[in-house]
């Protein structure tokens, strides 16, 4: 199975936060080669960090290196096929970054590691 980390799962993993479920943590630690991080998540973290709405525990500019050093090297670019899928999604969820991740997961056949139950309404497999 291949996984896409939701932004909060990535942040909680980065911080060593207890909010990350044990199941998610185990997958990221043991099956990291099958874990993907969307560039949309880095985009979201960049915006929130610059607005002082997010403290990563490290400067944002170090986030990519941190991910790489921790085995998270599968970065998923936002491609036109993802955007096309995004344009077809119903509006169960309005957050543009979450919707982008959902479109990527559907297009690439990835399960999403997320606490957000609402993702299931889009037909993605949610892991938590």
Q: What can you tell me about this protein's structure?
A:
The protein has helices at 7-15, 22-30, 39-50, 63-69, 80-88, 96-108; strands spanning 3-5, 35-38, 74-76, 111-113, 126-127. The longest helix has 13 residues, at 96-108. 46% of the residues lie in helices and 12% in strands. Helix 5 (80-88) packs across helix 6. The relative contact order is 0.22.
Q: Which percent range fits the helix content?
A: 40-55%
Instruction: Please write the string of helix (H) and strand (E) elements.
Output: EHHEHHEHHEE
Mean pLDDT, nearest integer? 97
Structural class: alpha/beta
Tell me, briefly, the overall form: globular
Protein traits:
128 residues, alpha/beta, five-stranded parallel β-sheet, globular
What are the SSEs and their pairings?
Layout: E1 3-5, H1 7-15, H2 22-30, E2 35-38, H3 39-50, H4 63-69, E3 74-76, H5 80-88, H6 96-108, E4 111-113, E5 126-127
Parallel strand pairs: 1-2, 1-4, 2-3, 4-5
Helix pairs in contact: 5-6
């Amino acid at each position: 199975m291949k996984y896409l980390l939701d932004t909060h799962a990535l942040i909680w993993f980065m911080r060593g936060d207890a909010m990350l479920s044990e199941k998610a943590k185990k997958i990221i630690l043991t099956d990291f080669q099958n874990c993907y991080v969307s560039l949309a998540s880095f985009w979201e973290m960049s915006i929130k960090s610059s607005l002082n709405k997010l403290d990563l525990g490290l400067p944002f500019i170090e986030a990519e290196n941190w991910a790489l050093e921790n085995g998270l090297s599968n970065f998923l670019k936002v491609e036109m096929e993802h955007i096309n899928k995004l344009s077809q999604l119903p509006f169960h969820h309005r957050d543009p970054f979450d919707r982008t991740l959902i479109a990527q997961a559907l297009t690439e056949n990835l399960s999403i590691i997320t606490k957000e139950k609402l993702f299931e309404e889009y037909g993605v497999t949610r892991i938590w």
